[in-house]
Design goal:
It is a single chain. The protein has six helices and nine strands; from the N terminus they run βαβαββαβααβαβββ. With about 220 residues, the protein is α/β, with parallel strands linked by helices. It has a nine-stranded mixed sheet with strand order 4-3-2-5-6-1-7-8-9, with helices on both faces. Helix 5 runs parallel beside helix 6.
Length: about 220
C-alpha cells in the first residue's frame, strides 16, 4: 500500500490511499476545507484535480496561487464546470471547461483527461475535489449524481488517490446527505461555532472524536 495521505495543521490524522470523503457544511466553509484537503500537497510527490461548479477556472487558479504560494501549479488540473468557460490565463495549471454544469459526461471526460495527464507525468498520488455536488443536484436527479460520485470515487480508489465531494446540507433533504455519504468512505462535517469553525469526522478510522477547532483562513 502507498503512503497515507497527511493533512498538516488540520485536526485530521493520516488516511489510507483510495479514501473518498463527503465534506458536508455551509457552502464557503465546506469549499475552503475541501480545497485545503486537496491542495496542501506533499512536495514533489502529489498532484490534484479539482472540479469546480461555483468558481471559474481562472479564479480558482488565481486563488490557489495566492493561498498556496509554494504550490507547483503544474501539478494541478482544474475542470471549470460553471458553464462560463473562463479558463484563459497565463498559468502552469492545466485547465479544461465544459459548456454546462449539467454536462456530467463532459465533466467526467475532462476529469479523466487531467487525471491521466498527471499520471503520465509520473504523478501517481492524486488528490481530487468535486465542489460541489449541491450545485450539480440543481440540474440533475439524485440517482445520476450517486452514479457520478461512485464513478469518480472508483477511480480514486483504484489509483490509491484521495477524493473529496462537497455538499451543502442546508440545500437538501437529510436523505440526500445520507445517500451520498454512503457512497463515500466517510464524512467530514464543518460548521461555524462562536465566530470560528469546527470539524468532525464520521466513518474514518483512527480520527479525533467529536468537534475539533479548525482554522480555515485565509
Amino acid at each position: 500500500m502507498s503512503e497515507e495521505y497527511t493533512f498538516p495543521d488540520l485536526p485530521l490524522n493520516p488516511v489510507r490511499p483510495g479514501t473518498t470523503v463527503l465534506v458536508s457544511g455551509p457552502g464557503r466553509p465546506a469549499s475552503k476545507l475541501s480545497r485545503r484537503l486537496t491542495l496542501e500537497l506533499d512536495e514533489g510527490t502529489e498532484g490534484a484535480v479539482l472540479i469546480s461548479t461555483n468558481t471559474s477556472g481562472r479564479s480558482l487558479a488565481r486563488e490557489a496561487a495566492g493561498t498556496y504560494p509554494d504550490l507547483d501549479l503544474s501539478r494541478v488540473g482544474i475542470v471549470d464546470a460553471t458553464g462560463r468557460g473562463d479558463i484563459k490565463m497565463e498559468t502552469d495549471a492545466r485547465m479544461k471547461a465544459v459548456s454546462s454544469t449539467s454536462d456530467l459526461t463532459g465533466i467526467s471526460i475532462n476529469f479523466s483527461i487531467l487525471f491521466s495527464a498527471l499520471a503520465d507525468d509520473g504523478i501517481d498520488r492524486i488528490r481530487a475535489c468535486v465542489d460541489s455536488l449541491s450545485l450539480l443536484l440543481l440540474y440533475t436527479k439524485l440517482p445520476t449524481i450517486v452514479r457520478f460520485t461512485h464513478s469518480l470515487g472508483g477511480r480514486v480508489n483504484a489509483t490509491d488517490g484521495f477524493g473529496t465531494f462537497v455538499l451543502d446540507p442546508t440545500m437538501h433533504d437529510p436523505q440526500v446527505e445520507y445517500t451520498l455519504g454512503s457512497v463515500c468512505d466517510g464524512v467530514i462535517e464543518v460548521r461555524e461555532h462562536e465566530g470560528s469553525y469546527q470539524m468532525r469526522t464520521d466513518g474514518l478510522v483512527d480520527q479525533p472524536n467529536g468537534w475539533q477547532p479548525v482554522d480555515l483562513s485565509p
